[in-house]
């Protein structure tokens, strides 16, 4: 936990394309790519164009990353490859599966900005930017005095509009020469150079701590740019873009129409030069339809010359040697092929298709003529379609044209251009025309003369609602023809093509332009970014970052979609997106934007340093006004400037404004027409002086304080934000620091309506501020003052002199003129709330409070942070060391955790409801939600793991913590009530909670989580330290699975295991709390939670021994494993181990397989544990020395374990036959009478163990029918009588092992002696072993050969190449069912199987039975298969009612472990290729288990799922054998 390096994990998933997802990272972070579940086990390579350290970035150069596997294990759960991010920009990654591209995306690394001579860091959230129109700065030698206004106002970044030579329109964004500095900045005697600009920018950075950025305009150049005339190929002209010719003809026709209107030629038809009403608009529409369109006949550009085409067709038909052309089927339809030159009637059709379509029935002239007529008719139809389409385009064109006329001449908010003239035509021209006007027909001839047509160029503009990723000037777009472009008549659109080779001059010219910009400026604003071709912007920014690696890139995007925004942000590495406060229509919306654009909620959880990389929204540069916005004084009121700038500045992101806003300039400063200069800084000037400003002007004094505050909040980590809409005009924004817990609260009363003309209530609501107000940081009010009213100055851009702000900074609450009084109320013992009553919070005023926790709470937080710093360095800041803390807190928690045994950890971490109820407790219940899954810490951690990443502070869990101390007390008191080391943990938590209860309630979820996370992870480490090296060095997956051992193995109030022999060493004892006597307290293994966790239903022989190897032996819990083996050995009766243990005294001996699973565990113990064979000599206290004895106390009859083993073997060979004790409904209310008769034995010929009858079920598939309605009560669904395949395998394994031990004289018996027909008969282990070996495949394998002589029931075979599920069943067809049980025999007794046959059977099992998490328990092709288990359903369906299909399809997890282990074993014998494929399969299957384990609130693997891995509500949520067999697979891997 101790590392503080920020690491983000990006999970790769198959076919996941994340190009529209924004991943933002900072320099110094490490990014790890890890395999998601769909890719684990597959050969994946990750490629990225992030360069090697020290190498230059090259967008097209990718390298593959090396995988690292910290645990060096075979599973892929921890495998990662990484990047250390030290470079800003946009970087791409993709990954391959083999050689197939499988997914990818982009990451954006933020730049690091530095200011000052010492290069101190300027975080992006501290940026306060001001935009200047460069042309309004005047001569260069006056810039400093004008820019000083920004410095004095507290800005730390200046954005200049382009500094280049402007085009003839004088628009700031229409540049005549991208490489030349604007000559306006020079004096006649002193030329200003780029170098001069560079020196000033450098001075601003080093001396004023101000960074400078400027625009780059890539989309267009001024119409009068000299270079575009020399290189017309750089524009969309009629030579390189002939598809624009029809649009050009329309454009010229409209120009001539406009000239006629200007000359009064249409006055008599209702269209005078001054257009003033709707009637005149309708007349324009009529004239265009009646005069303009018919004259230019645009449809001809898209039509075929019918006469010419028919003549050509006739010639081809009548050629003597004509063959009918072959055209592919189905025949393509005849279509018009556009003329590449776009000549009138220049289009064609494919004559081959025509000849194949219109075929004369003979070669006579009449037939040919008929054919030609058909062809002519078809062409006329096609031409008519084009005519129709053109009509549709023309309709749109007229609508757009009239919309434009309305806006420019009639609309209230439009420019009201006045009469139509040649300077202000009816509509803006779409194309340049550098020639003298001539008649339209003469002009049209120019379009086919390349030396003239190349100068007919398309203007740029923007298209409402267009797809920004589509270039509207390229072929396929009809924007120019349909007049959908809002056109900038001063600029020519630039045509880059796809790559630099397509237009070398343009790319080189613009690259030079970019390099000049990056040489002198620290950042760029991408003008008109949404219309800039992405590949062009990428290329240019790459060039810029070569010169300025930490380039700050801002852009404004009008895509209308976050997904589209993200494409631009990720591809270009945009640092901040400009967001406009002017888009808010009221204060509520303005407040919402503050919350949207940055910060996390107040009281958020502390996120770990190592965490998943989450999609982000683009970092915002939130501007109260941009230079494109209309004037807020016009749209809102002058009084709103101060409160809105305060609200915007409180956002946890970059903030900005435009020059003129602070001075209260009451009109928009036009980027096109404004030619006056900005005011200069002059501290002594009077308010009415128009050329100078100072702190008396506008809101400048308040702006300085606001900017300073914004920078301070960003620098000091006030990253938490809360926005409170106090009333319709008042917005309170809180910024909170999660380390110092200081808050800054800014209350702003907006004035969207003018207070002089609108009603505002005098009554202002009271405000409650939690904590102690330290000071009023600033209070400011917009005030009128007695000066001359505003008059627009001729030379300077002046503001309103009659308004200013009254500002006071850093005063005490009682000095405030806005606050009437402040009372203190308490909300609980340690929470102070200040109630604020306002008196002068008039519209246009703001007040900012600095608030800290009350001193008592501040100390408590400091102490908490001090003790939490043992878990994470994050808590070092704000921590406080005190001497008088509880002595237990002086001990590191790791030392307390180290004293716990694994059995005690079970109580601290886990225990479900029924386990706790045994002790008189229960799991904590969260009101309005649900109970926790566990009473221990895992119960809480499972919920917190869901809440924490999403900061879901509104969750009922958090509400409960904030409302009272119930949950907090529950956690500590539950542990203190237990004794010893467990109580110590409780006391440590209680001591921490003592301080937790003294902090404000809104902070409790965050610190409660931090305390729990620290203690929980320490406890997990303590658990793993007590486990085997396999676990300690294992992957995260192995470690988390191994916790299943802690989860399932515990000691309850009542011992579940029978007493062990008193003479056995190392048995754990405790003092009984009631009798005060010493009693054994061995760990027992629960079968599953929550259903099989307590009382007599906790321990089952079969479940225990299927799970024991995985949960106890592999994890290194050897002593506990030994005690369980010996405790069960003590209950042996009739040669069987009990199914339900019932503490031995209530045991049921109704299963045939548990004894063989027990024997397998004894074998595994001897093999895996150091000196494991010693267990054979351990004393076993026999509870039932004879079948009929009453249960005896421990120590009465002791025997060494090897004798008990021999007895089990001997009893089976002799034959077992008995009736269960207390047979009848009192022990099983569903069983039929015959089911209580238990038989087991060994076949003399084959050596196979057999048993059971059709009324009982002695193997793990033990579902007994329960439904009267369906008539299946008392009938087992799967009796599996005869010789079940896994029992034959387990018995073979035991016999082989005992044979080996007897040969080494470790096991004293070489044979088993039984009575047959009154005589003693001895069967050696060697003979028994050989019999099984000789008969197994003969009798269990279903041959691929239909004539196989070993097959007794060929008519029952429905799958070949498999192993039978049983042999000799009372219902013979059951033997032939495909089930997963044969894989168990393969793992424990692989010698029984031929490699090739085993492999074929495993392939069949994989194909038919393998599910996402488990194995289908029955072949889905079987007629009784049903994959959905519903134990509550009772109906007439025999096969389903009351869950009868429990083992007839649902997918059980534990057999998957055996299937995978068998597959691994045999794949190694099939060769390297099969082995490699199998490892891939195993990893892939296990990855699903890993995902389930991580997501499950139970932190376990379920008993079963429904078909295809669907959740089954009737399953145990976590099952011992499921976890165990998956762990065994990982051990084998």
In quaternary terms, these chains amount to single chain
Mean pLDDT: 93
Beta-strand level of the residues, as a percent range? Answer: 15-25%
Structural class by sheet pairing and helices: alpha/beta
Given as residue ranges, the uncertain stretches (5+ residues, pLDDT < 50) are none
Structure commentary:
The structure is a single chain. This protein is α/β, with parallel strands linked by helices and 1533 residues long. The protein contains 40 helices and 57 strands. The strands form 18 sheets. Strands 12-13-16-20-21-22-25-26 form an eight-stranded parallel β-barrel, surrounded by four helices. The chain has a seven-stranded mixed beta sheet with strand order 23-29-30-31-37-33-34, with helices on one face. The longest helix is centred in the first third of the chain and has 46 residues. The radius of gyration is 43 Å and the shape is globular.
